[in-house]
């Protein structure tokens, strides 16, 4: 039989989360972000749950081709725009909308020969300091684009650096509105955290919102708020089984480096999952895990192919018992991916995207 580890993707949960984002930002159109292969879930596996989105946003031209091949006829937005002039040919052929964040991209458009002018989103650097034109240069960039016959409609966008944190978004919202005042075109500034926390504010939701991590059941502002607080459902379950059971005496250690030592007799289970499957090596003793739907903890160091777990809370567990690393157990119990990520010192986004190729993936509603 195959090794028992399995990732399960839940398209119905994706659809639920999309509708949750819609309720948080009424009247706005919604970009469903599927970059990084739909945050590790697989575009082909989640697209059915995203059919009610108004547009699909991503980074890679190859992913845009896949979305078109899967039958999506609506807008597709390249969030980082094109990376070289010849990419514009594919934008023309696939009717892709694309961000413009630097002078070179405007130069490429000016030299591009096309019969159908392009729809572009002019990006502002309102404080993130990654991509985009500063507010001081924004109008001149707009004027250059607006003069090009290769450009049809120009929309406006920016990205928040602190929508999930204490600093907040007010300074960036103000900078964006001040720089775009009186310019014609649609606007898009709200990411997942802004959708949930500020979607009711007209000056934030605007014409479009960009739903990313919210679609995949992770709270963008964890641990201040949890996925349950936001009524989000897990869209990925990583599960395995116990492949061995060991009984320890006081003083026995577990795993590489002897990072855990039993202070009394105890039983541990060995799980077919390790960092080669995408489970974070930084998850040391105490990371939550479910065995037969019962919450317990990991003990010792994560190795390439195995982790060990404390069976004290679930004494009936044995060879073949179900182990839920994150997501939904067979009995319905939930282990939020955000809890596991926090134990590893990271975020749920990374765990989703880091799922290893060797892990088989199933689809189940």
Describe this structure in words.
There is one protein chain. By secondary structure, the chain is an alpha/beta fold. The chain folds into 2 domains: 11-216, Alanine racemase (TIM Barrel); 236-363, Lyase, Ornithine Decarboxylase, Chain A, domain 1 (Beta Barrel). The chain has 12 helices and 19 strands. The protein has helices spanning 11-24, 35-39, 43-46, 61-69, 87-94, 103-111, 135-146, 170-180, 192-198, 202-205, 337-343, 348-353; strands at 6-9, 29-33, 55-58, 76-78, 97-100, 118-124, 151-158, 187-190, 208-211, 236-248, 253-254, 260-261, 266-272, 288-291, 294-299, 306-310, 322-328, 334-335, 361-363. The strands form 3 sheets. The chain has an 8-stranded parallel beta barrel with strand order 2-3-4-5-6-7-8-9, surrounded by 6 helices. A 6-stranded antiparallel barrel has the order 10-13-16-15-14-17. Strands 11-12 form a two-stranded antiparallel ribbon. The longest helix is centred in the N-terminal third of the chain and has 14 residues, at 11-24. The protein is elongated. The two termini are 24 Å apart. The relative contact order is 0.14.
